[in-house]
Amino acid sequence: MDLLIDRFLNYIRIEKGLADNSINAYARDIRGFAEYLEKKDVSADGASKGEVIGFMSEMMGRGLSPRSINRALSVVRRFYNFLILDGIIKRDPTLDIQSPKTWFTLPKTLTAGEVDCLLNLPKGDDPAGIRNDAMLELLYATGLRVSELVSLKSEDVNLELGYLITKGKGNKERIVPVGEIALAKTRNYLINSRGAILKGRVSKHLFIHRGGKGLTRQGFWKIIKRYALLAGITKDVSPHTLRHSFATHLLERGADLRSVQMLLGHSDISTTQIYTHLERERLKKVHRQYHPRG
User: Fold this and answer.
1) Residue 28: domain span
2) Residue at which a domain ends, from 72, 104, 136
3) 40 SS3 class
4) Is 145 marked active-site?
5) Is 172 known to be catalytic?
């Protein structure tokens, strides 16, 4: 890797005509990337998009600014462009990687207490209230995307064995376990609510509105907004907030990142790594609040 870096820096110096200070900055960034790959036991030509994002995540974890991380990504991009031009590699792992600026818009989450307030709020004994109660509980229990939740069919949920089957992005199917409370509320909905809403009509959808058709994403978005307001939650709450809360609370309680990735249906673990940053931020806040010299 050292030889490749030296050739890259010579190429930058001669072909691009950059000043010494710029060359030194390039050298720091690309050698930092090389050290990261060495820790991962990955060669430059064997690096994937996941390694590049992992390098950026590590920089973010060390508190570097979005500007610094963006500069490092730019250097890594140029490095791989050089390797392609030189015929050393054919695949560029930096393609389609978003600017790190977007990484710092962290997903909004609820505290465990706020989730309890939302889920324990009385929804009513009418068919719609029972349905809403089941949907909110199931969403937090599984971390489904709202599109996955409203697309569920009755046969997708196995109440006896405690799991559901869903199809996420790319039409990829996954099996997600469901907790006892969510199972009980879903069972209550199926027994005491769904038939009353259908009124003899037939629908393939698990969750339906009073017209007998499947509930839409927009319809459920309005439902969760209304209950969040009634629960006294001042944050801007959406269905995705519960998905983010699901992932964050699992990690806070010791779940490993790979398991959370599988539960969320992320094809690349680098997408799940944003939640590790949330956990680091929480730990920093705890340290500042409770350490005597924080």
Assistant:
1) 2-104
2) 104
3) coil
4) yes
5) no
